[in-house]
Amino acid sequence: MTTLINKVNFKQITKGCIEFNGIDSLNGNQMSGMIIYQPLDVKRNQVWHIKFYDENKSLNNSSIAYFGSSAKNCKQWLSN
Predict the structure, then answer these.
(1) Domain boundaries, the chain
(2) Model's pTM, two decimal places?
């Protein structure tokens, strides 16, 4: 499997909210977003999700890229 983002940096913002940024391994562009804990109305293995920022550094619901069971699972998806 190819790395999605090279040199990923993670920063804990609040409990259940982790910001990340790094370099896209495919095109070399800067990528950033958040890993967010949202346990309501989802399956137990989808309580954490990854959202990417758009060009205006804002999050929108259409940018959800991955659902995971833990923050660690989401971090691995980004960096492995």
Answers:
(1) 5-79
(2) 0.81
User: How far, in Å, CA of 38 to CA of 21, rounded?
Assistant: 20
SS (H, E, C) the chain: CCCCEEEEEEEEEECCEEEEEEEECCCCCEEEEEEEECCCCCCHHHCEEEEECCCCCCCCHHHEEEEECCHHHHHHHHHC
pLDDT range class, residue 24, cuts 50, 70, 90: confident
- Residue partners of 66: CB distance under 8 A and separation at least 6: 49, 50, 74, 77
